Amino acid sequence: MSSQIINLTEQEKIILDELCLTASDQENMDIKRQLMYGALRLMRDHNDRLDLKLAAAAINEMSDAFAMFAPYKEIRKVTIFGSARIAPDTPLYIRTKELAHIFAEAGWMIVTGAGPGIMAAGSEGAGEDMAIGINIRLPFENHPNSWVAAGQKLVEMKYFFTRKLMLMKESSGFLVLPGGFGTLDECFELLTLVQTGKAEPTPIVLVEPEESPYWQAWEEFVNTHVYDRGLADKNDASLYQITDDIWAAKDEVIGFYANYHSRRFINDTLIIRLQKAPSDQRCIELSEQFADIIDGDGIQKTSPFRIEIRDNDHLELERLAFKFDKLHQGRLRQLINELNKDIID
Predict the structure, then answer these.
(1) Which residue ranges make up each domain of the chain?
(2) In this predicted model, what pLDDT tens digit does every residue of 192-228 receive, in sequence order?
(3) Could you name the CATH architecture of 74-255?
(4) Could you give the CA distance from residue 150 to residue 159 in angstroms, rounded to a whole number?
(5) Of 114, 233, 274, 331, which is most buried by a Cβ count within 10 Å?
């Protein structure tokens, strides 16, 4: 039992359970209890005003963002990161606008930080129907760009950490254009989340400007000072692609879902959901090719597990199951690429 529950009196538990039932139905009651119990513990145990303000603002901002995203849950989204300082008449702004338009035409919604520069280019290229904005309140960047504001799919946030959560949580792919400290922070955090398995496998494209290299210089630093020093696995380079071709960027993101759909862990077993599972012989070949990250009997085709049936979790999809070491996410990405290539070829 959670320490959140143990530290409450029986009367407090009863009152909070009644509040949970009054506020909503009985679905996910275990999580709702944790949320209520945590809030009560915070109010009871911490009297520092700044701590309370931070927690209250974070919860309210996430609640607003969840509500804003809810109607578009089933639509694929791509997040565009990049500098707020790029002027509208520059080649980088123009090609970012075109890149966003390409995705919007393919039925993908475009998520940006809602500010000027690259963010405005993404919103403008998407059009107000397909643009979503997560704005940050800053002294020098107060207002969301006009394109995302016009569509009214917008939420404003005080804290960078809640904003980054929402910029990453809802999207199925990421396009990172050149930028300053904020963009590099977003890029490295995104890569860290995927590299450590804290985020779902996802396509990440670092889009190079045509007129001068940016991500190539970044990659040179990473190769020399990160991979070559053994500070990260060289296979983690598979987690991202660098290109100056906006059509190649589109193919990389959308092609990631040519066959691969999603994953789920059931205890120590990784379930990969696919449009079409490979043949038994191909499973044997892949088990040998990726033996370094697979424990046990290799890759097996499987029907939905009982817990997936209980949750009605994409039961229409085919499945592979294997014991994944959970460490080598770059190699897992390479396996997903092979599964997609089987369909594309």
Answers:
(1) 3-70, 74-255, 260-344
(2) 999 999 999 999 999 999 888 999 999 999 999 999 9
(3) 3-Layer(aba) Sandwich (3.40)
(4) 23
(5) 114
